[in-house]
Here is the input.
Amino acid sequence: MVKITDVARRAGVSPSTVSYALSGKRPISEETRQRVEAAIRELGYRPHAGARALASSKSNVLALVAPLRAGIHVPVMMEFAVSVVTTARRYDHDVLLLTQEEGEEGLHRVADTALVDALILMDVQLHDPRLPLLRALERPSVVIGFPASSTDLTCIDLDFKAAGEACVEHLAGLGHRVVSLVGSPPQVYVRQTAFAQHVVQGFTAAADRHGLASSVHPCEAVPGGAGAVAEQLLREQPALTGVVVHNEPLLEPLIDAFEKLGLRVPGDLSVTAICPDELAESVRVPVTSVALPSAEVGTRAVELLMRKLDGDTDVPEATLLAPRLTERASTARRTIA
Here is the structure.
C-alpha cells in the first residue's frame, strides 16, 4: 500500500507538504503542487477517507437515505441507489446507504457526526416529517421526490403527475372512454408517498379533462393480487377498455389475469404502464409505457449535490424530468361494437 511518505519521497517534499496539497489548508507553490500531483498519479496513491476527513473537515461520503418500507418495490429503489453510487465514485465520493425506517432520528444520527458531507433523501411523503430537520441542517441535501411544499429544498424527480396524464392522453387518443389506474400497494397511499399521489393526480385530472369514466385501485403486489383486482375492475366497470399500471410486479400477472377472464390485450383491453423500459419490453405483450428514468434521476441528484458542495449558489430548487411515453404492442384503437 502506497503511503503519504512514499509520495513525499517521490515529489521531493515533506509529508506535511503532501497533506497541504491534498487538503488546501495552507498555500503551496504551483510547481510544488504539480510535483505532488504527478507523484500521486505515478504511485496510484489514494488518501484514506479518515485522513481526508481530518485534513479537510470532509469525509468524501454521501448519505443515501432510502428506507425499505412496506409496499416499496426494492429492485427499482436499488436502480436509483446504484446510479447514485456510480456517479458519486466519479466525484471520488463513497455512499453510505441508510435503509432503516428511522425518520428524523436517522437523519440526526448521521448529521450530528462527521460521517457524511451531504445527504440524498428518497421515498418522500407529501408531508414528510423529515423535511423540517433537513431544511435546518447545515449539510447540503437533495431530495428525490416532490413533497407538498418544496420551499428551501433541492428536489428532482420524474414528473409523475405528467406521467399519469400522458398515459391517459394516449388512451383517450385511441378512443378509450372507460379507464382505470391499478396503483401501488395501499400502504404507499396511506403514507401519502409523493410519487404515487402525483400519479393519481395526473391520471384523474386527464380523465376528467377528456370526460372519461375512471377509477383508482391500489393493489398489493402479492400472488393472487392481479387476479383479484382484474375481477373487481370488470365487475365494477364492465365497459373498461383502458388500464394504467403503476405497480411493477403486477404488470405481466395483470395481463395474464385479464386474458384468463376473456379479454385480449390489446384487442379488447389496452394496457399502459409507468415502469422501467426494460420491464415494459420484457413482458409477453410488450407494454406501452412511460419510462422510469432511475439512472438519470440518481445521476443528476448527485450532480446537483456536488454543485452545492462546491458552493454553487445557482443550483435549481426544482428539476422535473418530462415523461417519455413509448408506444408498444399493448395498446390499440378502441373497437366499437
